[in-house]
Amino acid sequence: MHLIFLGPPACGKGTQAAILKKEHGYYHLSTGDLIRKEVTAETELGRKLKVCIETGALGASEIVNELLKKDVENHRQMGILFDGYPRKQDQAEFLDSVIKENGSVLKRVFYFDIDANELYKRILGRITCNDCSIVYNLQTNPPKEEGICDCCKGQLVRRNDDNESVLKNRIQSFFEETAPLKGFYQKRGILTVINAIAPVELVTEQIISAL
Ligand code: AMP
After folding, report:
1. Per-residue pLDDT tens for 61-93?
2. Of the residues 149, 184, 196, 202, which has the fewest C-beta atoms closer than 10 A?
3. Which range among 71-75, 117-121, 137-141 has the greatest average pLDDT?
4. Which of 13, 31, 65 to mutate to test the pocket of ligand 1 (most atoms within 8 A of CB)?
5. 9: Cβ below 6 Å to ligand 1?
C-alpha cells in the first residue's frame, strides 16, 4: 500500500518521510534524490536533468518516469512513500499504471497546505544530510552538533537549488503544475489535507491518524 506526499519545497515532506520510514518501514522514494544521484554520477540521464535541478524547472516526464519505474520495481515488496512525484497530471497517470502493473494500491495522498511566504522563510535556513538526506532547519530544527547529522553523522550541506531565484521557480512550478493534482485525488476520495504550518509532531499526528 503506497502513499504520496504532495507539497511545495520546504513544506516538511522530507522530515515526515524520514519519520514514516523509521517508524513505519516505508521506502522513501524521492524523485529529487534520484535525479541528484544521476547528476552527481554524471550519467546520460543526469546530464539531461542537470539544467532543471539548477534552474528549478521540472525535468522531462519521460526521463523522470524511467527513474521512478526502475526504483518502484526495485522495491516492489515494500510500501512506498512517493515524495516529489507525481508533479503533474501525466505523471499521476503514469504512476497509476506502474502501481497497477505491480499489483499494488495507492492508499492515501497527503497534501501539505502551507503559504508561500512561510516557505521562503523556511527554505533559506535549510540544510540537508549529504548521506541520508534528512533535512534540518537552522531556525526551527537545528542539528545537535553544527554541520553534523544527528542520525548518521554525515555532513550537513545547503542544497545548491536552495537559493532565492531557483526557489521562486520551484514554488511557482508547484502552485501552477502540481497543486491541481489535489483535485484529481480528492475526486477519488483518497486525499487528506495537512496543516503543514503545525509543529513537526503535530504534522506527524495528522498523517498517522489518516492512515
Ligand atoms: P525536489 O528534491 O523534490 O525538490 O526536486 C528537485 C528538482 O528535481 C526539482 O526542482 C525538479 O527540477 C526535479 N524534479 C524532482 N522530481 C521531479 C518530477 N517528478 N518531475 C520533474 N522534475 C522533478
Report:
1. 999 999 999 999 999 889 999 999 999 999 999
2. 202
3. 71-75
4. 31
5. yes
Which atom of ligand 1 lies at the shortest distance from residue 33's CA? 2
3-state secondary structure labels for all residues of the chain: CEEEEECCCCCCHHHHHHHHHHHHCCEEEEHHHHHHHHHHCCCHHHHHHHHHHHHCCCCCHHHHHHHHHHHHHHCCCCCEEEECCCCCHHHHHHHHHHHHHCCCCEEEEEEEECCHHHHHHHHCCEEEECCCCCEEECCCECCCECCECCCCCCEEECCCCCCHHHHHHHHHHHHHHHCCHHHHHHHCCCEEEEECCCCHHHHHHHHHHHC
Q: Is 158 a catalytic residue?
A: no
pTM of the model: 0.86
Indicate if 13 belongs to the active site.
Answer: yes
**Ligand 1 centroid vs 157 CA: distance in angstroms?**
18
**In angstroms, rounded to a whole number, what is the distance separating the alpha carbons of residues 91 and 89?**
5
Specify whether 36 is catalytic.
no
Does residue 8 line the site of ligand 1, with CB under 6 A?
no
CATH class of 2-117+163-210: alpha beta
